[in-house]
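Incident log, structure service

09:12 report received: a user says their structure output differs between two submissions of the same chain.
09:20 pulled the input from the user's history:
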Amino acid sequence: MDKFVVNGPSKISGEVSISGSKNSALPILAASLLFDKKVTIKNLPRVKDIDTMLKLLKSLGSKISFKNNKKIAIISNSKKNNYFAPYSLVKTMRAGILVLGPLLAKFKKAKVSSPGGCSIGVRPIDIHLKAISKLGVKFKINKGYVNANAKKGLIGSKIRFPKISVGATENTILAACCAKGTTIIKNCAIEPEIKDLTNFLRAAGANIKWIGKRTLKINGVKNLNSISYSIMNDRIEAGTFCVAACLNGGSLKIRNFDAKIINAELEILKKIGAIVKISNNMIEVKGPKKIKNINYIKTREYPNALATDMQAQFMVLLLKANGKSVIQESIFENRFMHVPELRRLGARINIKGNKAIIEGTTELEGAELMSSDLRASVALVLAAFISKGTSIINRVYHLDRGYEKIENKLKKIGVKIKRLSR
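09:34 re-ran on a clean worker, output below:
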């Protein structure tokens, strides 16, 4: 397994360009199964989860060719009726369950392995199944597989999610856009990646309309048109680099990104004393000499507050604040798995239920660390480059799932980091 060796402390400066969004690309790639005509998807991030999804599409009969150093995928589907998504491909990536909706729409049946991914919480798929069952689908779960059947095809219905779920919203949209009749979906997640998915489907001829803040109306269509579409850029990568710029009084220009979609995170950075300037497709962040503490932050669904995928990064930032801060995690129950590793560096963090109490002005010293999930991994990298001495971060395959060659980007802005492969 690869690992990172980081020598600190470092102070970053320069500029970085943001890659395509993994969390947007995955459902759009799954959506390609709905098409009988060619689909061209641009601005793909070259990360492990994307490679896994492409392998899954190939196993389902898709033919895929690449252009521009694999940033562009051209996908065409065979007429072979393959509706089986195996455990071997779905086990490492939760987004594998997103092929369920398109397979049902296309073949009226599907057999999909229950998904894997980061161990940050239970994240059951019952919300997916209950929603899609309203479209006329019968489910049986046997030996870890979801066996689904819609003998009469998918039929539009009224659906209301019991709680906001990004994955369930995406899967239901994918199922409903080619169903017979009209589907109304209420209490949808409205993350930018979901808006990117609906924009992609609309551009291909799907009849999808937002009729309320969290309500979608979908009139099913028989076919989708050939399309060329560019994925949005990654808001979590952008947010991560914004936080990195604030550590040790750094300064960074973040290019190729629309700042509006991380407004909540930028507002928090302003509160800790950062100077944030926004211009056309660029963010400039200058870290403060002294980081102010934040009495209380709570992760919530977009767009209300701090994204759960940014919680670990902000925790590292608040380790350098001038007082005590509190972060409450309200989305996933196991999202403090990075805390024991941060403590190995000298961090003073006390966990009480779903709250982390962070003691600021902490002097960190390098140590050997173990990654537990995707966002925890990048938090450990941030903490390592502001620590005194050498840190070794093991199991960085977690980080490779969602960040495109992050060590190369960090090197260019002043972080002393290298990858060691075994």
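09:41 both user submissions now match this output. Likely a transient worker issue. Closing.
09:42 reviewer note: The longest helix spans residues 48-59. Residues 3-19+233-420 form a domain with the UDP-n-acetylglucosamine1-carboxyvinyl-transferase; Chain fold (CATH 3.65.10.10).
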